[in-house]
């Protein structure tokens, strides 16, 4: 290499100089671009930090909603003081498999959301870190899917419990177990709130991931 | 330093040439970096194009699954040739509100997926376009949420239809309406397949959006 350059310089003196200035010009060309990129990066950093802080706040709210759903459904329990047309007179969430599924899934989601808090904080400290952001996004999507699934399954049971299903001859039991029904309805609403927050978390992550 | 070099150039002509060639080396230094960036971009472009093609294939499969779910549930219809313990002997999807919701949501999802095909193709042609990718991701997430919701709600009803719910005194009706039950179960499975594909579409979009 060195030898070649020496050889070239020995033959023409002006040309390499002219080329040099051109080369320099070309070499200088990316410099302002680089400065702009830096400025954009700083600007982006601010925006991404804002998104990351909003992410943490939304995550904390989702944890509250998730734990509310779990605990409301978990403690839904009603013992009737009299006999009814039903054989049993003790309504509990684990009598209905769907409500059991609901409670377990909401507990899992709340637990995951608590464990995800450190990653969310890492995203605030390092707004440009892609790894934790991508991990959070994928896990949030899965958490949202299972939470929506549990909430909808429970909602359809609660609907039948309230209104019955005359075509399938399923009688509503909410008139007998009023408190139990109200508690499970509240749990379903809380779970849907948690799922909606997870939906927004996924969309926020998409904005944080996108290159501007 | 510069002065020193200039001083040196005044005395000898070869030296500045040598310096020139050195300067060239320095001036050219960012060039290979630029080439690498270009190469990375090309490489990225290839990767993103691959993701975009996989996105289209997955989208087509999700359309098939969504339409299958809609049509199977929509045509689920059974008339019993004899009277049973039920008052009616004609089972149809629109007798059960949850199945109605299921059919409508799956139709909406399938329709959305068909409409999203041009955007998916744009993402193949322009792998670096962020707008359509972000739009697809957000709409896919929402579509996944409603599909999972419909599938789970229908699944919980199908579960009760198969197994009954002794605690709430709801009798299973699948022994009477066997074909209807099998059709609705298949529809639920197809819908879950569509939802899973949408989940993968969201995760794919996350990878396509991330800056490497």
From TrEMBL, chains A, B:
Keyword terms, alphabetized: Cell membrane, Cell wall biogenesis/degradation, Membrane, Transmembrane, Transmembrane helix
InterPro entries in the record: CASP/CASPL, CASP_dom, CASPL
GO cellular component, one term: plasma membrane
Listed GO biological process terms: cell wall organization
Keyword Transmembrane helix among record annotations: yes
Record PANTHER family: CASP-LIKE PROTEIN, CASP-LIKE PROTEIN 1U1
Annotated function: Regulates membrane-cell wall junctions and localized cell wall deposition. Required for establishment of the Casparian strip membrane domain (CSD) and the subsequent formation of Casparian strips, a cell wall modification of the root endodermis that determines an apoplastic barrier between the intraorganismal apoplasm and the extraorganismal apoplasm and prevents lateral diffusion.
NCBIfam families per record: A_tha_TIGR01569
Protein name as catalogued: CASP-like protein
């Amino acid at each position: 290499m060195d030898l070649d350059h020496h050889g070239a310089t020995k033959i023409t003196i002006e040309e390499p100089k002219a080329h040099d200035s051109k080369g320099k010009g070309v070499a200088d060309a990316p410099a302002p671009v680089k400065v702009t990129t830096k400025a954009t990066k700083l600007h982006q950093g601010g925006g991404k930090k804002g998104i990351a802080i909003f992410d943490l706040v939304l995550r904390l709210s989702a944890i509250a909603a998730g734990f509310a759903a779990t605990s409301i459904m978990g403690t839904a329990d009603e013992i009737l003081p009299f006999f009814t047309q039903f054989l049993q007179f003790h309504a509990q969430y684990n009598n209905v498999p769907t409500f059991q599924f609901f409670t377990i899934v909401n507990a899992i989601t709340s637990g995951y959301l608590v464990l995800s808090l450190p990653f969310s904080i890492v995203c605030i400290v390092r707004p440009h870190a892609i790894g934790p952001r991508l991990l959070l996004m994928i896990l949030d999507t899965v958490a949202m899917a299972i939470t929506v699934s549990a909430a909808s399954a429970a909602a359809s049971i609660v609907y039948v419990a309230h209104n019955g299903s005359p075509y399938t001859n399923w009688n509503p039991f909410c008139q007998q177990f009023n408190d139990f029904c109200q508690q499970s309805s509240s749990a379903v609403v809380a779970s849907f709130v948690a799922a909606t927050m997870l939906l927004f978390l996924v969309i926020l992550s998409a904005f944080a991931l996108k290159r501007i």
